[in-house]
Write a structure and sequence with these properties.
With about 350 residues, the chain is of the alpha/beta class. The protein contains 13 helices and 14 strands. The strands form 3 sheets. A 6-stranded mixed beta sheet has the order 6-7-8-3-9-10, with helices on both faces. Strands 2-1-4-5 form a 4-stranded antiparallel beta sheet. It has a 4-stranded antiparallel beta sheet with strand order 12-13-11-14, covered by helices on one side. Helix 3 crosses helix 4 and helix 9 crosses helix 10. The longest helix is centred in the middle third of the chain and has 16 residues. The structure holds adenosine-5'-diphosphate (ADP) and magnesium ion. This is ABC-2 type transport system ATP-binding protein. Belongs to the ABC transporter superfamily. Drug exporter-1 (DrugE1) (TC 3.A.1.105) family. Pfam families: ABC_tran.
């Protein structure tokens, strides 16, 4: 549907936003290919919402440039507004109106005729599993329903670019899955989605490329595979037939792979974190380990080779886990080694 599909939906260079002494966004470069879900992953206070607000023309940048489908977000703000839609941590729907009333009202505001607005609204309510709730006031919706009506409202007229700012924060797993399905459906129709999230598995599930953002800076960028590969080669998980063979298996794995081997709580299970610097691929290392185990007479019942989780990626990139709050005003440590590593870890 988009005439821009061949190019970039978003392009920023050195984007900056300060609030007093806080550099909320501290020189962000992004290149978001059109027609994809792009994940901006970072903990609370990382600068995700501030970035989205600048891209959606709701906040004026203090430095750098940002273009949406080639239009400058400051000089061509009107053009940008015509192409984007925003949902997530913002209330766009009226609590006192029903789901149907909200959508029809918005549809009318967007210039749809009465009949077209009703039809489109009914279609979206059905697609989002809200038909039965269509006549209920939104204030009586559950958290998951509320999030879905928010997204429905934001795609009433199919936008070229949809910002989803933490669309599933606080939702139960079932509602999260429903939102994920909706995001996939929206992208299948040609809309580009910029998704911010604190959830590593959410970025992993939905996004083709991910920028990891911490304290206003992009600390790594790439496809999921690239990000994971920049951190480690993954892990080998083994389940043995016989718990008594576990010490022997540990020794064989240590010798074959030259890495630490961890005992899992399950007495027949072992995990070995592979070393990316070993030179050969994770699969080759794993194959070698299995061969050595067989030669040593260790019976392996179950074997899997897993990529590192995005949690491990974040920890490796930032030196802190995703739960650690980045307090405003602690930016003085922005030059710690974790941040200086950008050149090595950026992919
Ligand atoms: N309007 C504002 N005034 C002052 N500080 C703000 C404002 N908005 C955001 N900040 C600060 O900027 C930083 C980034 O915030 P935000 O973009 O909301 O992060 P995120 O969305 O990743 O949680 C935080 O330190 C936050 O406290
Ligand atoms: Mg936010």
């Amino acid at each position: 549907m988009s005439q821009h599909t061949a190019g970039l939906a978003i392009e920023t260079a050195g984007l900056v936003k300060t609030f007093g002494a806080t550099r909320a966004v501290d020189g962000v470069d992004l290149a978001v290919p059109a027609g994809t879900v792009y994940g901006v992953l970072g903990p609370n206070g990382a600068g995700k919402t501030t970035t989205v607000k600048m891209l959606a023309t709701l906040l004026r940048p203090d430095g750098g440039q940002a273009r949406v489908f080639g239009h400058d977000v400051v000089r061509e703000a009107d053009e940008v507004r015509g192409l984007v839609s925003l949902t997530g941590q913002y209330a766009s729907v009226d609590e006192d109106l029903t789901g149907m009333e909200n959508l029809v009202l918005l549809g009318r505001l967007l210039g749809h005729g009465k009949k077209a607005a009703r039809e489109r609204s009914a279609q979206l309510l059905a697609a989002f599993g809200l038909t039965e709730a269509a006549a209920k006031q939104v204030k009586h919706y559950s958290g998951g329903m509320r999030r879905r009506i928010d997204i429905a409202a934001s795609i009433l007229s199919t936008p070229d670019l949809l910002f989803l700012d933490e669309p599933t924060t606080g939702l139960d797993p079932r509602s999260r899955n429903q939102v994920w399905d909706i995001v996939r459906a929206v992208v299948a129709q040609g809309t580009t989605v910029l998704l911010t999230t604190q959830y590593l598995d959410e970025a992993d599930q939905l996004a083709s490329r991910i920028a990891v953002i911490d304290r206003g800076r992009v600390i790594a960028e790439g496809t999921k595979g690239e990000l994971k590969a920049s951190v480690g080669a993954g892990s080998v998980h083994l389940r043995l037939r016989d718990a008594e063979q576990r010490p022997a298996a540990e020794q064989v794995l240590r010798l074959a792979l030259d890495v630490d081997v961890q005992r899992e709580p399950d007495p027949v299970a072992l995990t070995a974190r592979l070393d990316a610097a070993m030179g050969d691929t994770a699969a080759a290392q794993a194959a070698r380990a299995l061969g050595e185990l067989a030669r040593a007479g260790v019976v392996v019942d179950n074997f899997s080779l897993g990529q590192p989780s995005l949690d491990e990626v974040f920890l490796a990139l930032t030196g802190h886990d995703t739960k650690t709050d980045t307090e405003p005003g602690t930016r003085a440590d922005a030059g710690t080694p974790a941040h200086d590593q950008k050149g090595e870890v950026a992919v």
